[in-house]
Write a structure and sequence with these properties.
The chain has 6 helices and no strands. It has 122 residues and is mainly alpha-helical. The longest helix has 42 residues. The model has no long low-confidence stretch (mean pLDDT 96).
């Protein structure tokens, strides 16, 4: 069981201790404020080499991925850019395995904040 799973179990327990109004508040906050998986996946698929999914998920190195891709396309004329583009392509593939964890961590962060707000209302 990794840290996200432990945190999810803890937050589910905390949410179950809230009254029904608090639980409804938490669920609506998650629905409205958490990053949408379909948006993240579409950004990854269509604009992933430019780091669009990283910008959406507010991850570090999004600007670096964008700059490397732009530099790679500019330098592709002299073939050096193809190496850079290959690196960003590999990075794009690696991100597919991280995206689910990023989405889960974002959802848990929103849930934690909502539970804290609901608790403070009591």
């Amino acid at each position: 069981m990794d840290n996200l799973d432990r945190e999810e179990a803890f937050l589910n327990e905390e949410e179950s201790r809230l009254d029904s109004q608090g639980q409804l508040f938490v669920e609506s906050k998650i629905t409205n404020d958490a990053k949408q998986p379909i948006v993240a996946w579409l950004l990854w698929f269509f604009l992933g080499t430019f780091g669009a999914h990283r910008f959406y998920m507010q991850k570090s190195n999004a600007v670096m991925m964008l700059c490397l891709t732009a530099i790679g396309y500019v330098l592709a004329i002299v073939l050096v850019g193809l190496i850079i583009l290959f690196i960003t392509w590999v990075w794009w593939i690696v991100d597919v395995f991280s995206l689910m964890n990023w989405l889960k961590a974002n959802r848990l962060r929103v849930k934690r904040e909502a539970i804290n707000i609901a608790k403070s209302r009591i």
